[in-house]
Amino acid sequence: MRPLSIALTAALALAASPAISNDLSDAIKGLTRSTTWTLVDEVPLNFNTHHPQGMYRIGDDFIVSTVEIITRTQRYDTPQDGYDRDAGEGRGWLYRFSAEGELLDEVELGEGDIYHPGGIDFDGEAIWVPVAEYRPDSASIVYRVDPETFEAEEVFRFRDHLGGIVHNLESGSLHAVSWGSRRFYDFALDSIDQVEMTDAVPLDEATMNSAFYVDYQDCHYLAGREMICSGVSSFTPPNDAPSFGLGGLEIVNLEDGRPVHQVPVALWSSAGRPMSQNPFFLETTESGLRAYFIPDDEDSVMFVYEAEL
Fold first, then answer.
1. In CATH, which of 3.40.50, 1.10.1450, 2.60.40, 2.115.10 is domain 4-308?
2. What average pLDDT score do residues 69-98 get?
């Protein structure tokens, strides 16, 4: 992907690199379609999670981004001003909660029509959060949030819907996906300033996503030039059979946007939602992998699964 340089001069230091190894990447690459996932815990979240989007574990606590939908978007009969739907109304939130599901902190993000937080990442110092309009081909604000004080700082604005943000510690750049993860964007962080990017980046400045198995929702940096993304896709069988969603995990090469390792996750909540629909977090264990998922809205449960590899 070709970096899109952001002209910046403000004093905003790049986050220090956390200790990163290839262990997690190697473990994920050991997953197959026949991997057995064992449910080891269900943690009810004792607050209204609204519509969760991204998640990261920092120490003993978890960070989750979510959108509070006040008025749902409505599709237009014909596109208006380049949009296929209205903006709706809502509020964007970033929550911190304990391993027992207790709400510890919160910060509201976004402004006006920009209220939809996407997938988040943590680089050892800052939580990166994209907040966009709840419609494709729209606009976004990218924030970095201090994990201790929960103070948010606007970094830049961009004329497209951004989600699934990742801080590439090898190149010092930010990566993000568009609505439906059809486009990959790469933003250079060699300098940082508070500027408004008012013009949409031409499509030839983005890398088109050649994978159509799942739409990426939440992504995290792994190591080197890799990120891991969770995602979901809906399928409608013929003859009026009910549609169903299938989720998956994919390691993606940050340089060319191509999938490195793809694996379905055939796990669903009691409401029928794929576990990997939105927020997820993965970590290694002595015998394999542990996965955290929050598939359902509002009265959510964090499901914890383990896989032996």
1. 2.115.10
2. 97
